[in-house]
Amino acid sequence: MAAKNKLTLSVQYADPSLQEILPRPLLRKAVQATLFAPAELTLRFVNAEEGRTLNRDYRGKDYATNVLTFAYTEDEDAEVTQADIILCTEVLQKEAAEQKKSVEDHAIHLVVHGVLHAQGYDHETDEEAEEMEGIEIEILETLGVANPYK
Q1: What angle do CA 28, 64, 7 make, to 5 degrees?
Q2: Which neighbouring-strand residues pair with 83?
Q3: Cβ count within 10 A of residue 33
Q4: Per-residue model confidence (pLDDT) at position 150
Q5: Within 10 A of 25 (CB to CB), how many other CB atoms are there?
Q6: How confident is the model at residue 73, as a pLDDT?
Q7: Nearest-CA neighbor of 22 among 82, 73, 96?
Q8: Are residues 140 and 146 in contact, defined by beta-carbon separation less than 8 angstroms?
Q9: pTM to 2 decimals?
């Protein structure tokens, strides 16, 4: 995290509802803070319909979820991390309201979460979850975002 890794970032606002509060420079800063290796990433903000379709077609779960990561180099030691990270704006906004967090802070957390998945991190076991959450908390602190797990 200390050194800046090369980043090629595409940001797509298929659902533009959060474009003003989540501008590309803010997203780039969050992604850059999370990288352990050079990366080629796409962040795509979608509505609930597209989010549900992707979650159903690729994960077999028929509902829109907050973030989906399609990692093409899912290895912590990969030379270049490549992934598409999909964020569902409607789910993100609903969760932020329920958790009494700003949409910006919740979105930054989900971006960090998705980028970690792209680099091979997961939370299938308690040990993996604890490791991933610890890394997220450290990164979010550097970005001025409070611990999302409190």
Answers
A1: 15
A2: 41, 71
A3: 18
A4: 87
A5: 8
A6: 85
A7: 96
A8: yes
A9: 0.94
